[in-house]
Design a protein that fits this description.
Distance between the termini: 19 Å
Order of helices and strands: HEEEEEEEEEEEEEEEEEEEEEEH
Radius of gyration: 27 Å
Amino acid sequence: MIKALNTAATGMQAQQTNMDVISNNLANVSTAGFKKSRAEFEDLMYQNAKDPGAATGLNSVSPTGVQTGLGVRTAAIQRDMSFGNSSITKNPLDMQIEGAGFFQVLTPDGQVGFTRDGQFKKDAQGRIVDKNANVLQPEITIPPDASGIEISSSGEVRVTIGNTNEVRQIGQIDIVNFVNPTGLKSMGKNIYTSTPASGQPITVRPGLQGTGYLAQGQIESSNVNIVDEMVNMITAQRAYETNSKAIQAADQMLQTVNSLR
């Protein structure tokens, strides 16, 4: 009976983690470039009263054995790197990677971060930065007399100077890719950092080595599907309730045992 209490408790804890992941997905349904996650579980060790195949007599073995499971635990939280839908903004500094790849930004502590959020702006010096003032890498500065900005699909940044027709190339936007993008570490603020699981960043021009091209004037929306998450939430809630009922049933059985005379 005590095993049943502990086993059901691990089930409730696992479903709580599942609900936390689902809640985070729903909370970020409008976050540009957000990638949804899912919780993955695995069963715990088994108590073996009799191993499968154990000898039960002369020339006979147990066909199944007697194994009692001891519960579940969270094995991983897997990030889904599928691409979100395009959202047209017509902002000249908004960019979407139409395929694999990440933008590079320099954080205030000097660390290079990676993001799918292509909502960029100009700071006081004319540098292209994200909403948290992280500078896009390689650094590109828009001249103060620029009247138009054009970003090609392969990352060349050109500006039109003043009221003239002079077009000047001022920089090149490179993107990075990883052998295992799901191994990146989430730092918040739409920023990832590399880990030993993700591998080292591979810097390329957009469209090369399996990466996507850039699209100016649009951003990538979250890849969260609200209907799927609502179904997952109901499933997690029912599983949580069922595990709580198992605890109640085990408690009632213990009360019956304690009342024996």
